[in-house]
Structures are given as structure tokens and as C-alpha cells.
UniProtKB/TrEMBL annotation:
Subcellular compartments: Cytoplasm, Cytoskeleton, Spindle
Keyword Cell division in annotation: yes
Family per similarity comment: Belongs to the HAUS1 family.
Biological classification of the source: Eukaryota, Fungi, Fungi incertae sedis, Mucoromycota, Mucoromycotina
Keyword Coiled coil (UniProt): yes
InterPro entries with a match to the protein in the record: HAUS1
Name of the protein in its database record: Uncharacterized protein
One of the protein's GO biological processes: cell division
Keywords on record: Cell cycle, Cell division, Coiled coil, Cytoplasm, Cytoskeleton, Microtubule, Mitosis
Organism of provenance: Absidia repens
Any one Pfam family match given in the protein's UniProt record, by short name: HAUS1
Coiled-coil stretches: 67-194
GO cellular component, as recorded: cytosol; HAUS complex; microtubule; spindle
């Protein structure tokens, strides 16, 4: 029987290394075919892991690209929203100014109509007998004139409050892009965790 003292130091080192490799490979038999089988199995496992890592890297790159595209679209929507809000403010300012001008014209028109009404009433009182000019006729006349004035005011107010819904649409689109970007970021983090686990 051969003992350790019968072997050279280099041979002992080699045998010790093979023993450690066998233990790591989980071999029970120390013949050459067992080593080849174990090495082939581990090589295939390593190749599969490399392929999986490559697929994950490609998927991560794709998600990163989509994330950047989504961020760019989001910035574009933000700029669009800001422009639309600015345009709306300018339009509202012009509409308020126009409404004020129309209201001033309406007040002047009402003043003139009231003056004409008072003049016509005075003339009517002088032309016809007091018995025929009753309070009811005067009230009817006043009511008709007031209804005309109120109708003009109502039309002006309808113009002022008729605002476009463009900003609401832009808000909805921006929120959709923000949701997409958040989901992509979460998926990217999960993939990076899977890549890290596959390397150990």
C-alpha cells in the first residue's frame, strides 16, 4: 500500500487539489470520466446562466430605452401644458377685457334706453288723458325694457364662461405618461435584482 511518504511533494499537492475539486463538484468517484461529466454539467449550467444574463441585459436595455422615450414624451407634454395654460391666460385676459368693454357699452346703452323711456313716458303723459295712462301700462313697458337689458347681460356672461377644455386633456395625457414611466422604473428595478441574484 502506498503512503504519503512514498509520494513526491508535487504529487501530493496535485492529489490534494483534485480532492478539493472533487468535493466541490460533488463527486463520489474519482475516475477521469466522472470529472469530465461534472465539468460538462457545470459548463452547461454556466453557459445557460450566461445566456440568461444576456437576455436580461437586453431586456434591461430595452426598458431603459423606453423609459427615456417616456420621459421625453412627458417633458413634451409638460411644455405643451404650460403653453396651453399661458395661451388660456392670455385668452381669458382678452375675454375679460372684451367683457368689460361690452359691459360698459351695455351700461351706456341701458342709460340711453332709460332716458328715452323716461322721455317717452313724460310725452305720453302730456299727450293723452291721465285716465288712459295707467300704472299697469307703465309697469308692462318697464318690464319689457328690463327683460331686454337682462338678456344682453346674460349673453355677455355666456361668452365669458365659455372656456375650452384643452388643459383638461393635457393633464390626463401627462398623468398617463407618468404612470407608464413609474411602471417601467419598477420593472427595471426587479430585473436588476434578478441579474444580481443570477451572478451569485
Amino acid at each position: 500500500m502506498i503512503s504519503n511518504s512514498d509520494l513526491e511533494s508535487t504529487t501530493l499537492i496535485g492529489l490534494d487539489a483534485l480532492s478539493k475539486v472533487s468535493t466541490q463538484l460533488g463527486l463520489r468517484k474519482y475516475n477521469w470520466s466522472s470529472y469530465q461529466t461534472a465539468l460538462s454539467r457545470d459548463t452547461m449550467t454556466l453557459m445557460n446562466l450566461e445566456l440568461e444574463k444576456q437576455d436580461l441585459d437586453e431586456l434591461s436595455w430595452t426598458i431603459e430605452k423606453r423609459k427615456k422615450t417616456t420621459e421625453q414624451e412627458l417633458e413634451t407634454l409638460k411644455e405643451l401644458l404650460a403653453n396651453m395654460q399661458q395661451q388660456r391666460k392670455e385668452k381669458e385676459k382678452k375675454m375679460v377685457q372684451q367683457w368689460q368693454e361690452d359691459a360698459e357699452k351695455l351700461r351706456e346703452q341701458t342709460r340711453l334706453q332709460t332716458k328715452q323711456y323716461e322721455t317717452a313716458t313724460e310725452k305720453a303723459k302730456t299727450r293723452i288723458d291721465d285716465a288712459t295712462v295707467t300704472n299697469i301700462r307703465l309697469l308692462e313697458y318697464q318690464t319689457v325694457e328690463l327683460e331686454k337689458q337682462l338678456d344682453l347681460v346674460k349673453k355677455q356672461l355666456e361668452k365669458y364662461y365659455d372656456m375650452p377644455p384643452d388643459t383638461d386633456w393635457a393633464n390626463i395625457r401627462m398623468q398617463e405618461k407618468m404612470d407608464i414611466m413609474t411602471n417601467l422604473e419598477k420593472r427595471r428595478e426587479r430585473l436588476l435584482e434578478e441579474i444580481a441574484r443570477s451572478m451569485y
